Every structure is written in structure tokens, then in C-alpha cells.
Amino acid sequence: MIIAMPVTPDGRVGDGWGRAHTVAIAEVTPAGEVVRWEEFEVKWDESHDLSGEGQHHARIARFLMDHHVERVVTGHMGEGMAHMLGRMNIHVVLGVHGVARDMAGQFGRTGSVG
């Protein structure tokens, strides 16, 4: 499974998805092992207020499609963003806090719920 999550400079799951500065893409085996971890400086925190909501959402959607993301794990996400990801068939897990790599393994394993 391929998971995306906002990450803080100290390696924790970030609180805000649409205003993330850095996003990690993790590939996780069915057993929960993280076999690939890449961090991208997306700067959505800077671009969030520079364009309309539609353009901002499109930017994020393009990033997720380019990386074949199946699940987004985050502390918080706005209702409009959650709706868009649902339409893209991307499962959203909210209210997650902790070490990002650990959370990727936990929420990426087969049968995990969120």
C-alpha cells in the first residue's frame, strides 16, 4: 500500500494536510513493513492562500495521483479536501499523531482500519 502523510521536521505526523510543508510517501507491505520512504517539500503551507481552493485541491490531487497514493494519514483535514479524496477513492485516516514512520507501518498493513 502507498501512504501519504504530512511530516514535521522532527519526524512526526503533521496536524494539517492541506497546509503541509513536507509530505512523506511510504510504501508498506501487507505485514506493515515500510519498504520505501520518500519526503517531498511540497510547500502547501505557502501555496494554500496564493490561489483559489480549486487550484490548491488540484495541486494536491495531482501529487497524489503522480505517486499512486491509496491512503492519506494525517492529524487533520478540511471537509472539502476529505470529500475530494473520497471521490478519488483515497482512504483518509484522521486524528493520527506519533512518529510518522511508525504510523505508516501501522496504517499500511493489510486489514488496518482508520
From TrEMBL:
Pfam families according to UniProt: Nitro_FeMo-Co (PF02579)
Domain Dinitrogenase iron-molybdenum cofactor biosynthesis stretches: 11-104
Protein name: Dinitrogenase iron-molybdenum cofactor biosynthesis domain-containing protein
Protein species of origin: Sulfobacillus acidophilus
